[in-house]
């Protein structure tokens, strides 16, 4: 028996989503800098400020994500994925050549370019995956974003633990994996991931929710599995190999969904008793505009007056929140800048911790900091996947504005920074977990919130403008704040670098970042108040649709 699938069929749709999950599971390489930063610092005899500026260069790559955003409306998903895969292969491949000793250390500015390329590669992958999947599953944006961003969070732990299990955390081997694996996965995803019409019936939407639940369960199992491996101490070679094999099986297991649908369709076609239900081959444009809460207002340059058929020029009006915005229309709204600055306060400070975990751990006397990198990644996953589903649930049940969850994460993150500043025993463990959770919430909530506020038509570009906060926050909080304050406390080493040991090394950094999070909390509360009416309309619209579906059935 043969199984043939169409890209527009449920099988093709879910094969695409599984491929997207795999891409996200390997696209968190931008958060792994702490795993090899110490090797770069020693090899190139860098000060902490110079090392932090290397991490900024990595994050600056995301500023060029605007190119991916512009390309998302002009190039196909496979082309965007291919560009991201090739760029990452070159960026991380050159870093591997340097750290492995294959070539001599390159000039500092050249290394900045290749780190920038590695960072930019993920913007192409993320844009291809997020824009395509949110359009394919537009009625379940929260769960889609939570799952995809959750796997990004897990990817750091996946890379770290596999490298630790099989290669004893060797930084050169780690960089080789970062170069080869994402490129290979992108090539595989090119075959399956396409933009197709979204679900058109209530039955299809319910089926989507059911399958998202299955993928959520698999993701939680993977996260717990990684967490148990991290906290269970050292392991033997055979045990580590078995761990890696089981992990790869778990990552592949979402394939169960399209295989199940394939078998189901085959049985249905051969029974001749089933009514073919849920057919998505609808004559519908691929880039259909999102059904906004309010009626779509047609923007016409002229109207025809019925009496004399004379065209009369009408000025194009600024769209309201909830309608499709171009990027220029979006940046003219106060709501965009409230979201932008609050996002900066959350992700900028979170990135600072992730980029400096290596030096933070060494300052507090820890020799191996990979456990903190994994903890941040795993708990970031829980923050992403839970917040996506929970925020969607409360929109449907009580019209709770999505930004309110950002506010909750900001205040919790401020508490985490205060805990880190106090440098009590175990505070780095607590801080890694809290920062991971809150950083994950911030990403999983802001992505669908932006699509609800400014529409899906130009979402690829709006998303990439919004994540300019990543390089900007990295520069302000990591490159300047953390780098300068650390160097002020550090002592010069014999090779020309510097080092700092003690709780005082980062205390002032944590205090300033806690204040920034409190400011972000206030902005998120303001945005929640300003968008109450929008989410009230979303709630009323979904309730009305549900009622009409019940009456028809």
TrEMBL record:
It is found in: Membrane. Keywords: Membrane, Transmembrane, Transmembrane helix. Signal peptide: none annotated. Coiled coil: none annotated. It comes from Solanum pennellii (Tomato). CDD domains: MFS_Mch1p_like. InterPro entries: MFS_trans_sf, NFD4_C, Nodulin-like. The lineage of its organism: Eukaryota, Viridiplantae, Streptophyta, Embryophyta, Tracheophyta. Residues 13-259 form the Nodulin-like domain. Its main location: membrane. Residues 329-535 form the NFD4 C-terminal domain. The keyword Transmembrane applies. SUPFAM superfamilies: MFS general substrate transporter (SSF103473). This is Protein NUCLEAR FUSION DEFECTIVE 4. Belongs to the major facilitator superfamily. Phosphate:H(+) symporter (TC 2.A.1.9) family. It holds the Pfam family Nodulin-like. The chain crosses the membrane at residues 75-94, 106-134, 146-167, 173-193, 214-232, 238-263, 336-354, 360-382, 403-423, 429-449, 461-486, 506-527. It is a multi-pass membrane protein.
